[in-house]
Amino acid sequence: MSDLSDLLLLLALGAIVGLWLKLSVARERAVQEARRQCQQHGLQLLDETVGLRAMRLRRIDGLHMIERCYGFEVSTDGHDRESGRLWMVGNALSGLSLPTIDLLSHEAPDDVTLPATRGNILPFRPRPDHRRLH
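Structure (tokenized):
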């Protein structure tokens, strides 16, 4: 009986270590994606890191997959700190949220009206067929 309990304990410990390693690799992939998105949108990724904020099950093409949400902080000019989020399914980016960026400087002439802000969600890509995503 002692051998069986030792074996179960060893299997549980192995599963925990395997899960930790898998999540570490996924986090590194999220850091790379956050860097790429910040560079593409002209932002600075602060602290060069992301943090896991949430996990949820998502149905894609009839399969249940785990979607992870990572939070990070960015700066538009080096003097501010804004939060951003990215969602990943496996190694693929499934969503992105970045702070609103003013298109004109705050020193615009009085006769120039500033454009309306776009909100803090940037469209990533159109969803293929809404009936397939639940």
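The first strand starts at residue 44 and ends at 60. Confidence is low (pLDDT under 50) at residues 102-118, 130-134.
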